[in-house]
Structures are given as C-alpha cells and as structure tokens.
Amino acid sequence: MSELYLHNTLTGKKDKFTPITDGFVGIYSCGPTVYWNQHIGHMYAYVQWDCLVRSLNYLGYKTKWVMNLTDVGHLTGDNLGDADTGEDKMEKGAEREGKTVWEIADKYIAQFKESMTLLNITTPDVLCRATEHIPEQIELIKKIDKNGFAYPTKTGLVFDTQKFPSYADFAHLNLEDQHAGSRVEVDEEKKKPWDFLLWITNQPNHIMKWESPWGVGFPGWHIECTAMSTKYLGDTFDIHTGGKEHIPVHHTNEITQAFGAFGHGTANYWLHNEWMNIDGQKISKSLGNSILVSDLMARGFDPLSLRYLIMTTHYKTGLNFTWESLEAAQTAYFKLRDFVADLKDEVARGTLATNTEVFEKNKKDFSECLADDLNIAKGIGIVWQIVKSKEIDDKTKLDLILDFDKVLGLKLDEASLRHLVSYNVEIPAEVATLVSARDNARAEKDFAKSDELRAKIESLGFEVKDTPEGTRVKKI
Fold it and tell me: What total of structural domains would you count in the chain?
C-alpha cells in the first residue's frame, strides 16, 4: 500500500495519512442544501470526493462514506456573512415554487441524485437528511449546554466561543476585522458577534419546528454535520471534506462545537476543494450561468465528458469551465473509449496473456499519483502513455486501463463496438463514397479491391473497422 499524503486544512500542509483504524477510513462530506438545483459547480466537488473514495479503495483501504442532505436550518444570511440570520433556504424555495418544504426537499434530492448518477458518482454508504436526525442534534446540543459552552438569547441557544480560545485558528481569522464589515445586523444579546446558534427559537412563522429543552424551534445549520458525522463515524473519524467556502464559518463552527461536546475535534484530516468558475466568473443564478448536468446533455454532451474534464484538474486548483474545454474533454474521452472498444475486440480474438511485470509497474506508478494528494490528472497522463506505448501488448493495455478506471469512473468497461458504431462522426462525402464502395467490394468478395479502397480511406485520415454491427469509421 502506497504511503498517502493529503493536504490537511487543519495543519495547512500536506500530511502523511494515518487512519485511526488500520485499513479503514471514515469519510464525511458536506452535502447540498436541497432547496434548489445543484449546478455543475456543486457537482465539481462531489466528483472530486468520489475520486477520493475510489482512490482510497484502490489503494487498499475499506471506506465508509457519509454525506448529509441539508433540508432545514440553512439560513439565507450565510450568503451575506452571518449564517444565523435571514430566511430558511428551504422555506424560501417553497415560497418560490408554491410547494411545501417537504416537496421542495424531495424534488431537489431527486435532482441531486440524478446528477450523481449521470456523473457516475458512487452513492455514499450513508446519505442522511437533517430533518431525520433531529433527536441526535438535540442530544448533542444537550452535551454542549451541560458542559457550559452555551447561553440563551432572544433568538435561541448560542455557542459561547469565548470558552474555546482556539476558535479563530482553523481559518486563521481576524474576527474583529471580519465582522466590522458585516452586511447584517447581529443579535445584540450575543456576547461576541461570531457566537453562533445551536438551536433557533422565537420564530413562530417557521414551518419546520420541533420540541426541545430550549423551546419549540429548529437546529442551527452547523450542528447537523457534527451530529450526523459522529453518529455514523464516531466522535473521532478520519476525513471531513467540503468546499473552501466552509472554512471560515461552517467548518470552524463544527470544530468548535465538537470541543464543546466531546472535548476534542472530530476529523483528523480536513480537505477542501477550490471552486469551478464559468468563463472566469463565479457561478451565480443572477449571472444566469448555473448550468446543470442535464443542460450538458441537451447540448449533445456525454455527462462523463464533464467528469473527465473535472479530473484533469486538482481538487485544490479548481476549474475554469468553458464550452470549448468541455468539447476538448469529450473528444479526449471518446477517443479513449474508442481505443478501449478496439482493444476489447482485438483481445477477444487473440490469445495474449497479461504481462504481469509491466502491469505491476504501471499500477505502481498510477497508485503513486493517487497517493500524492489525489493527483488524478497525472494518473490520466499515465493512461495516455499506455495508450500510445509501442512496447505494451494489447491485453496488458486493456487490463491496465480498466483497472485504473476503478478510480476514474469513466465506465470504460462498457465501451463496445456497438456503442461506437452509433457514434456520429462527421465524414466527408469523398470518404463516405469510398466506404460505400469498399462495403460493396467486400460483399462481392473482391478483397483486393477492398484493401485498395481501405488504403485510400486511410490516406484521407480515416480508419475503417469491420464489426458484427457493420463498418465503423473514425478519424485517425
């Protein structure tokens, strides 16, 4: 098993990964707030964390992947710099569409799951809704309150960050400067502006409400992740993932409330992805650039082309999406899929055995890319080296690429000649005429003429292949 190194936000550097339990990794990922569609920028993160889980499995670890679905408590003030203010996003979504909050949650959970399927993202072992874990959140808040880390205000029960002197350390915050420019009014009963709500009360118009020791109300946004991660992974687990936007508030508060409840942090490694931009701009509904995975399909793109494009970048680097870059990624992906289909056909008709020495060497090189902070892009480079190699036989090439696809998730095992025959290649009229003439020559068993026409076709930059499904043509 290769030694794995991951960039740990907790330490600010690339750390050697040592799991709590030998051979097993517990992972918690911050999932979506299901009040609206998840666009391709959101899905960028989930492809990266899917690659994390797949890489860990490939490197020999067993994993348990937990992801939350936020369907209560995430307030609109989070977009303005204070997650304790504003309207519940779920209720905002319900008002927008004239549906109940429960219908909104179900609708956008379904949209999220569909996008995951289209991008071949592994379904987490546990996909948990906040509203289905209210008792766990209440019990966790009870621990925090009993340990003396909370106090009441007119808004609800608040975490007292003065009891945790290391509050600003995780995100390297200058708290006074950060809140001096806040665009929202802060509850004047808070001891510090950055103290945060554990349980929200005194909101009679809020639709989703539950009984609690602090009054009828609903949980603050941050408590759900600590409650659900520790329920399924224990109060200390290996890896917590999320977008970089979570560092200064959401994840800082998760770390803080864990100390209030348990006296220690939860995750040993915190991984954060950079963002996807579109044409150099942040993705925003107001800019009209919130592209969905289904929108890609409407424009004729295979969703796995987006997966390929995402994997050509490092999770710490982010991605500037353009339609041109997606088109280039699709060309590369289809070329790779074509190549695998060809290999499968050739190998099926041969008797070659895998070259074990070559296989193990290339597998080691690929594993080292994964172990270096998930350098999937470099791993894809190795795939193309194998494709172009004159020294590696077809059987070994096929076995290597399909083995690597356990991480890449491009469904290369499903590549087939039937699939490729239906692939719409733009063929010049001259080539199409030659292909038709060659088909006629083969039908008449004039193989000399057939070979002559094949040579002409190849001289024009195209290749023909005879398959059980018909003649396949592709650019060389």
Answer: 3
Is residue 88 within 8 Å of 73, Cβ to Cβ?
A: yes
Residue 396: inside a domain: yes
Paired with 464 in beta bridges are 473
The CA-based angle 137-142-147, given to 5 degrees, is 130
On whether both 340 and 256 belong to a single domain, the answer is no
Task: Give the chain's radius of gyration (CA, Å).
Answer: 27
Its domain, for residue 451, covers: 424-475
φ/ψ bin of 299: left (φ > 0), alpha (ψ from -120 to 50), beta (otherwise): alpha
Return the residue matching tokens 């008002």.
95
pLDDT of residue 101: 96
pLDDT digits (tens, 9 = 90+) for 414-451: 987 655 544 445 677 778 778 877 887 887 888 888 88
Q: Return the pLDDT at 423.
A: 45
* DSSP summary character for residue 248: I
User: Which residues of the chain are under the pLDDT cut of 70?
Assistant: 1, 177-186, 285-286, 288, 417-426, 468-469
CA distances from 150 to 80, 155, 157, 218, 245 (A): 24, 13, 6, 16, 25
For residue 104, the surrounding DSSP H or E stretch is helix 101-118
Contact predicate 276/373, CB 8 Å: no
Same domain? 221 vs 362: no
